[in-house]
Amino acid sequence: MHIDRTRALQALLDAWSEPAWLIDERHVVRAANRALARSLGVEIEALLGEPAPERMSQRFGEHAQRMEAAFAGARVVFEQVAGGRRLLHQLEPVLDDAGRVWAVALFTTDVSSVTTAEASAQGSEDQFRAIVGTCLEGVWQIDAETRTRFMNEQMATMLGYTVEECLGRKLHEFMDGSAWADAQRALARRKQGIRERFEFRFRHKLGRDVWAVVSAAPVFDAAGDYLGALALVTDVTEARVLERKVQHTQKLESLGVLAGGIAHDFNNVLAGILGNVGLAQVELPPGSRASFFLKEAELAAQRAADLTRQMLAYSGRGAFVVDVIDLNATIREVQSLLSTVVSKKAALNISLGANLPPMRGDATQIRQVLMNLVMNASDALEGGPGSIRVSTSLIEASAADLGRSYLDDALEPGPYLAVEVSDTGSGMSREVLGRIFEPFFSTKSAGHGLGLAAVLGILRAHNAAVIVDSEPGRGTSFKIWLPALKGATLRVRSEPGGPRPAPRANARVLVADDEEAVLTVTCKTLERLGYECVRCSNGAEALARLSEGEPEVDIALLDLTMPELGGGEVLTELRRRGTTTPVILMSGFGASDTSPELLSAGPMDFIEKPFVPGELSRRIQRIIGPKK
Fold first, then answer.
1. Measuring CA to CA, which residue among 93, 85, 144, 91 is closest to residue 117?
2. Whole-number Cα distances in Å, 435 to 402, 429, 440
3. CA contacts within 13 A on the Cβ side of 257
4. Theoretical Cys-Cys bridge with 481: which of 136, 357, 465, 494, CB 3.0 to 4.6 Å?
5. Which residues, in sequence order, are CB contacts of 596 under 8 Å at separation 6+?
6. 486 burial class (0-12, 13-18, 19+ CB within 10 angstroms)?
7. Which helix or strand (DSSP H or E) is residue 10 part of?
8. What is the C-alpha separation between 15 and 31, in angstroms, rounded?
9. Maximal CA-CA distance, the chain
10. How many CA atoms lie within 13 A of 556 on its CB side?
């Protein structure tokens, strides 16, 4: 790094007509020009890599403090009379990528024939500006009043201006109020002679943030008076935006994992509650007063189950019935319902693109996404007049387009079905926009629930992109991009297939679940429905009984997420061994955890916990036929 810089500076020193050289902290000569070599009566090669010549060391010996100031980052200009000549010396610190001074460039000019030293100093300054003008980083010099004295082209471009637009303007004009308060504290440290490296936020001409790493150093004159500051500025906006996006995605993913885990465990608890309530209702004599209370308990448990479904949707693991669907038809089915959630003063406009290809997904969940977005748009109008527009189209999304999505998944460029829900409401600030997908976040005093967080989970499960544009007073637009289906249009989820056994009395059902409460209530429910139940507390026991001589089992009910050997693994191994026993997979998560291969490994089905006795009986009868 230093080698390349030394070569560049050597070329600049050669262009200087009078003595100029570069020395490092040990006073070793790193570069020198021919004018210096001639003044010393030696060849340049004899100087490079050697300690500074004694004559030159003596020349600057009386100005040791100035040399120290230069190595501390200050730019120093002073005069010296030697041999009847008036010499102007300019010491310029040279920084490395880390902002540390690793060398000092010394320029000497004979100003004996010049009427004032200021004219020659200006010439030296012009030469210096030509040098830093070639720097790839931003260079910014301000005076003691924070006016811009010098700025190279790179720095001006970083801020969206030309150099001419920046010269003479004060520092605070390139930042907002909060950043200016930080800048004032930093300037106070410059006046104390402190050099430092820090991250700072400037304001671009177009109003956006420009994040930069700033290496700043104070500038003092020969008398020690503060003249201003000089800074090397590196634009890190892109890296910071990427870092924040990654952090935001990781936070949402962590919350999703937490929500999914809680929902799964809670669904197991609800399965026990609903199962026992159902059994109690069956055992009660007709007209019992307890029936009312049990019905209320059942309704409360069902409401709790609805909440867990929202949590699973947020985590991207909700009940997921995959099929090939027509997006426009899905929206038309809910169009009348959308009109009921929109304010009476608002106009709802629906514009559906023609000849759209199908997509693969869950129509119910897509409708849920649409309902949530339209309800949010209506809330944004705050009961006043305005319009809400829902539109669909087919787009070709590039990698750059997909990079704008809130979901940081590795989405493939290609054709996407675009659903846009826009409103003419109040819009959102950048701070609010950054939090809209957080669980339980709301700008409304009565806001609660998962709302857009659940929407995000559904879209994640559909491998979709979501882009939100909003500004205060200019409304909001949600753009949802769903992958268009290529090729065949066959259903992904197969209906339970295979030969249906003839109806039998006392059908035997094997139940495997690692949750004792769920296992017990499920078996009691099956026995109450007239089935014989075979209990298994884990997947390994279920596999052994089903494939190693257990008396005939008509159907197996397997929990999907048991330790060591889950229901999906048991099913896969059964089919590998040629065992064709019908299987119903059950889980506190949704069917999104069930691969298409398992869903097509018939005869089989899936049921989501918690379930009521009637639903379980219908699933069993659908596969093996009604019991006699």
1. 85
2. 20, 10, 10
3. 5
4. 465
5. 322, 492, 493
6. exposed
7. helix 2-14
8. 13
9. 125
10. 32
Q: What is the rounded average pLDDT of the residues 275-304?
A: 75
Nearest by Cα to 35 from 101, 93, 87:
87
Closest by CA position to 309, among listed 263, 275, 268, 369: 263
Residue 202 has pLDDT above 90, yes or no: yes
**AA letter at 312:** L
- DSSP category for residue 115: S
Chain centroid to CA 617? 45
For residues 405 and 411, the answer to whether their CB atoms sit within 8 Å is yes
pLDDT tens string 372-415: 888 888 888 877 888 999 999 999 988 888 888 877 567 888 89
Sort strands 138-143 and 85-95 into parallel, antiparallel or unpaired: unpaired
Phi, psi of 626 (to 5 degrees): -70, 145
In angstroms, the CA 35 to CA 314 distance is: 73
Return the sign of the alpha-carbon dihedral for residues 529, 535, 539, 540.
Answer: negative
CA–CA gap between residue 151 and residue 231 (Å, rounded):
10
Residues 6+ apart with CB under 8 A from 242: none
Q: What is the DSSP string of 405-445?
A: SSS-S-PPPEEEEEEEEEE-S----HHHHTTTTSTT--SST
Q: Examine the pLDDT at 319 and tell me if it is beyond 70.
A: no
CB 574 within 8 A of CB 546: yes
CB 457 within 8 A of CB 263: no
Q: From CA 72, how far away is CA 559, in angstroms rounded?
A: 70
SS3 303: helix
Give SS3 for 387. strand
What are the residues whose beta carbons fall under 8 Å from the beta carbon of 492, sequence distance 6 or more? Answer: 322, 323, 324, 360, 596, 599
